[in-house]
Structures are given as C-alpha cells and as structure tokens.
User: Fold this.
Amino acid sequence: MSFILHIETSTKNCSVSIAKSGELISLKEINNGAYSHAEMLHPLIKEALLDSKLTMSQINAIAVGKGPGSYTGLRIGVSAAKGLCFANDIPLISINSLEILAHSTTIDKGYIIPMIDARRMEVYSAIYDESYTLIRETKADIIDEHSFCDKLQNHTVYFLGDGAEKCKETIVHKNAVFIKNAFPSAKEMTQLSYDKYKENKTEDVAYFEPFYLKNFVATQEKKKI
Assistant:
C-alpha cells in the first residue's frame, strides 16, 4: 500500500490530489482564471491531507506535473514538491503535463492532441493515440490553418486544453473536435504516478528542474507618456 501526493500547476488550474495505490481518495483544486498558485497551493495540500485523514509522515512519494506550461506556475509547483521530498525524505516522481491533460478524455479511435497555451498563436502540444501511446513528442507549435493537417486528413483529432481554445477559428476541419474546459488535473495523475512508483522511476530531487521547453521571457510594463 502506498500514498502519493500529486501537484499540478502548469496552467491556471492549481490542483492537488492524494491516491492510495493508484486510487484517488482526495482532490482539491481551484481554477479562478488567475495564477493564484503561490497563495493556494499549500492550503490545498493541507486540505487534501485532512480530507484523506493523513499526515505528511504517511505519504510515500510526491508526484508533480513537470510541464511544459506557465513558467511561474511550474516553478511554484516543483519547488513545493521538492521541498516536501527533502523535508520528508521521500522520492519525487515527474509526469509530463500534456500527458496528464491527454488522460482527461477517452476516445474510441483517432488522436488526442493536448495543448497548453504558450502565448500568441503558439502552443505546447504532443500527440497521443486512443491508447495514450505517444505518437509525437512535446513541441512548441505556431498554429496556422495547416497545423496537424496530416493527422486530420484521415482521422478524427480531439484537441483539448487552454491552448486549444484559441485555435478553434484557425484549425477548421470536419475531423477536428474541440473539447471544452479541459486543464491538467492532479486527478489524472494517480495511475500514472503509481506505475512509475512501482517501477522506481523517480527523479534526483536535488537537480530536478521543470520542463519549461522555452526560455522565460519577462514582459516589461510599457512606459507611460
């Protein structure tokens, strides 16, 4: 029996869950349209522990959504996960946030393309089949009317995530299906993390860094004239 605490902060959805041997026993998350992770993450962790009637000393591992996604969100989530691992001498498990997002839907046939917003008409995306097998690795894509046309030609393609929302008017095809209101959630991490835990696929806590994919670019405030 194992208890794993999950943290997912790659988007505006600040999400925490606890699972017992891969089975979800508590989920706490907030998505208020803003990045409130710095204020909300640790209270959500405390709520999940209380809800599960557990203490940190009973947690066997921490799993974190490693990105890609929001630079600030990932930094907050990974820092919290590493701190808890250090303090409690437990292993760290990382999961690609696009894989987490892909598991929020099920399809009979076709492709799942999870998308996380990367500003303007750029998204972080990957491609999975109906069995969640990775078909194309994570990339930063600039979206235009020709994007994913090779997959759309003969297959139904399911787009989801906050990156997909802004692509509806650009990717126009009879085989394109857009799934609304989908975000990476700690709810979808439970079995993924448990599989890695059983196989001892853990990270070096001291050196682990989020999967940013792109360098952080600070936005400067425009000077008032």
Summary: The chain has two domains: 3-97+184-198, 105-179. Helices lie at 37-52, 71-88, 97-102, 149-152, 162-165, 190-198. Residues 216-225 have pLDDT under 50 and may be disordered.
